[in-house]
Structures are given as C-alpha cells and as structure tokens.
User: Fold RagB/SusD family nutrient uptake outer membrane protein from Flavobacterium rhizophilum.
Amino acid sequence: MKKNKIFTVKSIAVALAALTLASCTDLDEVILDEVLDENIYSVDGALAAAYDRLGDGTFVDNGGMFAMQEYTTDIALLPTRGSDWGDGGKWRTMHEFTWTPSSAVVTDNWTRLTSGITRSLTAIKAVSESDITDKEMFLAEANGLLAFYTYYTLDLYGQAPYRDPLNVNAPVEILQAADAIDGLIEDVEAIIPDLAELGQNQTHTGRFTKEAAYALLADMYLNRAVYKDRYNASSSFNFNETAVDGNGTDMDRVIYYTSLLIDSGKFSLNPNFFDNFSINNSGGQEHIFVVVQKIDNIRNGDNDLGYMCVARNQRPSPANRGTNGACTTPEFFASWEGNHDDPRFSRKYQYSDGTWFMNDGTDVSVPASDLVPGSSDLPWFHFNSGLLFGQQYGPKLTQAGGFEMTDDGRIKVSQLFMEKSSNTPMVFTPELDFDNPSQAVFAQDQINRGVRIFKFEYDPEQGNGSSNVDIPLYRLGGIYTMRAEAYLRKGNNGSALADMNMLRTSRTREALFGNVPGTAISSIDADILYKEIGFELYWEMKRRPQMIRFGKFDLPYTAKAETQPFRRVFPIPQQAMDVTDELEQNLGY
Assistant:
C-alpha cells in the first residue's frame, strides 16, 4: 500500500460490496470512494469510504447534521419563504418539532450515519485481514471513525446498529445509548496508544488522530449524563457521576481531555474568528478534526453552510447568488444585546486598496481587483461576516449579466431588494412575525425577514454549490467551551470564567476598529455560560446537545411550542423499523 497517497484525490465510483447491515440501511448504493487501486477491499479504499461519509452530505449539507442539530434549536430555522422552501414542510417540521418516523430529514440522516457505521466496520475488516505497515494505526483510525458515527447515532436516535466485523455470521445488535456510551468511551480510550499524533505519519486535520480522540472523549463525557437519563423531566442530569474508568467524575475527564488539547501547544486561538471558516482555512490553527473539502471535480466540497443564508440578490460574483433560505431566531439575536462589539458578532471586509465594505448605505463602490479563481476574470464581491441585519447593500446585475460598475472601473454598491419580491427592500429583520406564530411560513412579500448568519465563507469558484472550506468538527474554541462547562458543573466558577474570557479576549476586531480585543466578562453562572457558548459555536452543529444539557430544549421559542422530553431524541425511521425486527421505536413515537 502506498501510504503517502491515502485519501488523495484519485477516485472511482464503486459499489460498496462488504460486510453489511442491510437490515438497518440500504448499502447497495453506488458511492464515490477515494480508492487508489482496483481492489475495493484495500485498506486505502475501505478507509477512504469511511472518511468520505463525513463529507458526503452528513456534516456539510443543510439537510445533514445541520438540520438535526441547528434547525431544531434557537439558533437556526429554515422557514417557507413564499414560493420557496416549502418542500412538503420538511424543513419547518424540524423547527416546529412536528417530525415523525416518516420525516425525510430524520430518515435521510439515519441512513447517512448508519452508512458511516457500516463503512467503518468494513474498514476494520479490511485492515484486520491485511499485513500492511502501520496496521495498528490504521485499525485505530477505523475504530475511531466507528465510534464517531456511532456516537452521533446514539446522540440523535438513542440507539445504533452494530455487527462484529470479523464474524460474517454475527447477528445485528442494537446498542442503547444509556448503556452503550460507557462501552464507546472505553473503545476510544483503548485505541489512543495506536493512533498517530496530528502531523505524524503524514496525518492531517482530516484524519482521526490522538487529538481527534481526545476531543471526542471530552464530548462523550460531557453528554454522558444526558444519555443515562434522557427523559429527565426537570433536566437535572448527574454530570458528576463517577467516570467510566473510576478515575474521578465525568467532568474531571472532560477537563483532563480538553486540557491535553489546550496545553499541547499544537493549537492556538485565531485572533480573526472568521478565519476559522474561510476559504483558506485548511490546516487552520484551531482545527483538531475537520471535514476536508476541495473543489476537485470528483466530489466537490459542499457550499451549503455558506450559501443557505445568502439572499438571491446577494451576489459574490456575476455568476453566483444565494438561495434566501436559513436565518436565526429573534431569541438568539437578542442574546447578543450589549455584545455587538464582540469580534465574533460581525466583521467588515477590507479590500486590497484599503476600502472597507460598510454595508450601511455610505458605500459608493469597491475595487474590482479581486477575481473569482478559475473564472474568466469575474470580479469577486466580498460580503461582511457574522450576523447581518437591517438594509443590505451590494452589487446589481446589468442586463448583459455583469456587475454594475462605476466610470472608473469599480464595482458599484447599491441598495438591494429581494429577487422574488422586487418591491421588498432587502431588510433582514430581527423579528420574524409569522402570520401564524406556530408555523414558520412567510408570504411572498415577507421573504426578507430574519437575521442572516454569514459565518462560513461563500466560495464562488465553481457554481453556487461547491466549496473549498473545511468544516470543523472539533476546534480549539469549542474545546475551551467544553472545559469551561465542566469547571462550572464542578463548582469551579473561577476557572470557567478564565476559559471563557480567554475566548473573548483572544479574538480581535478588524483594523477599522483598531484591532482591539474582545472585552472580558466579570462573572459567570449557568445562564451566562450558556449564552457565551452560543457566541462561540453558533452555526457549527453543536446547539441541540447544548440546549438539552442546559434544560433549554423543551422550552418554547419562535415557531416552536413547549415540548415533552421525548423530543430530545428523534424517532427511528419507519422504513428501518419495517425491515429490522431488532429495532424498537423510541418513547413517544
């Protein structure tokens, strides 16, 4: 095996013929695997297929983990906007908490995650039966991916399928979260000695390394108490239960594993918060484990996390536009009151000649010196980052299809109106004001509503749907929030405050505001910490577990009524129930 080529961009379409969990998910699919030789059972091919499931919709697409972990929360929703985004109610169902065992998003993500489990089991089998160099390391990686997919399946659905990959006659087992979380923790702790450290053995942030294992273990320990008592009506979870190995409590282990990462010297907080989510974020200084994305014409990276909030008349280039989909809720926007100067709230873009795009009506033009890569010299217009609200400005198209330009060859900046409601100014309102408060539906002349989040950079290089932006699954900023929460749950408010202030003061404003650092807070409690975690991790597919841990998930918020604890997990899809006797439907469904 040529290790130096593993997971590169040489790929073919193959049928994944291997150990199956056919009773749990359809594995007779044709997939695009990064295979380096003609043997689909090769270690390269099997491991590449397991890694590929991370980026093949699961953690990069609007309908993947984002729909499950963000659209169900106070941070994000995808309302029906006039003639757009109705889709049989599939999107607003997630935010209105009216999903069922037959809901498309619920079903699709079960299939994605259980496919990830199966591909990981296939990789374990391939490595185990090989005699390759560094066999133990690759076997540990495959087991790490198995744990990662299984953990997310347990988190979302409360149960997950498993089959012994080395026994072709082994029966399907259904793991239950309350019991399986302990075994999963033990499994990941057991593979740490065999995993490579990040940067060794040609590993990178897209590979499951020791550091990825530390982050996953901290995550599992942080949520272990919830899995043990998922339906606790008062959300009084026992976060300080004795750890699996008997060494301290769950929160002690969170502190241990997060401290290994924070103190390692391998990662550092980025002063420009939004650089973590930019087109040039590959190998970013905060990144621990990511979905690597490339525009390579094989299976191009997914632009959804940058594309979904952009309005159709917001155009990064004459050939690109947004889709006018997702927005945040009034509740989350209001949580930023008094913190609009936080470097994570927004950042204005500065062009190469020093021009700042203010987006406040004072802009006349910006230089046309930035060109879209790979285009026929299309000018590239850069919108600001963060939470965008109020009247929006930007370039307009001429009848010939180019940007309106000034006489001196610069991109003209104008007041923008909505594309499908041309008399409606593009005013992104903090208020949503649905006609029926319990249904996330806008009339055609209301499609401008909702503060938009431009956290992930929109990549205009190839169409609207492709991207070079790596998607962080674990990064240093999130590790600090985990440790702060563990400290607080142990009663060590001083250390929790120090960690959150490290995040606040390590980020700096743009040069327009003197590159000043964010300001520290003077005290902390559970409510303040919850708000601060939102400031750091919004739009990163982390919110739902946070809301459950802090007892916020069942509460009403915009277009969402108060709900019962059974909604903390999703139903097992009906199509899986129909073919798998071992599965039992979750409580309440």
Remarks:
- Confidence is low (pLDDT under 50) at residues 1-40.
